[in-house]
Amino acid sequence: MKVTLFVPCFVDQLFPHAAVSMVEVIERLGHTVDYPEEQTCCGQPPFNSGYWDQARAVAERTLRVFRDAEVVVAGSGSCGTMFKVFYPELFHHTPFEAEAKALAAKTYEFSEFLVKKLGVTDVGARFDGRVTFHDGCHALRELKLKEEPRQLLRAVRGLDLVEMKEAETCCGFGGTFAVKFPQISTAMDEVKCHSIVETGADVVVSNDSSCLMQITGYLNRHGQAVRGMHLAEILASR
């Protein structure tokens, strides 16, 4: 299969190793990876802030870039949701509605692609350590992905997966939410991080690097040694 990769802005700019790990895992499973260099932001920041005309201008470019892709794999639940759920809404009753629905139908979040599309849970990974998983809001609530990343983690040799009490609690980032409401965002992050520390985990894993940025920022500022890793980084480990 030829897999076309969508790399979210946070991954591209701040966590490129997560994208590299996605490529390693997909190629390990025998598939080829295509990365269209003309891709840009999916348009979620203006969409979430209510600027739908500006979001469409960005999203129209995305539709063109991925028009001929066989399957699109997104490196975050947030951007995957933008493609799968919000693009059909954004382009409803416009000339691009059919194309938006076509992109939505062939897009998968990374863990969803491995488990649901490929039927794979064991990718041959090994990672020695105690790990807890954070459910990003979009992946959990919009894409209904709960067990998929956990199935992948449980198959990793040497990995001890322990659930935190607040696994489904928002980390408080929410993109522009953290900028507009920093006090509320920090309070939510505090609840999340206390729950992570309680597990005794060495690493907190998520499908979203933006969530990990929020979480590890708080942990680092408060002297906690828990690392943050994208799911793909764990799965790429040998």
Give the topology.
Elements: E1 2-6, H1 9-14, H2 16-28, E2 32-34, H3 44-48, H4 52-65, E3 71-74, H5 77-90, H6 97-105, E4 107-109, H7 110-117, E5 126-133, H8 137-142, H9 147-154, E6 157-161, H10 176-180, H11 182-198, E7 203-206, H12 209-221, E8 227-230, H13 231-236
Parallel strand pairs: 1-2, 1-3, 3-4, 5-6, 5-7, 7-8
Helix pairs in contact: 5-6, 7-9, 11-12
Could you explain how this protein is built, in words?
With 238 residues, this protein is α/β, with parallel strands linked by helices. It has two domains: 115 residues, Rossmann fold, CATH 3.40.50; 114 residues, Rossmann fold (3-Layer(aba) Sandwich), CATH 3.40.50. 52% of the residues lie in helices and 15% in strands. The protein is built from 13 helices and eight strands. The strands form two sheets. A four-stranded parallel sheet has the order 2-1-3-4, with helices on both faces. Helix 12 links the parallel strand 7 and strand 8.
Q: Any key phrases for this structure?
A:
238 residues; 13 helices; 15% strand; Rossmann fold; 2 domains
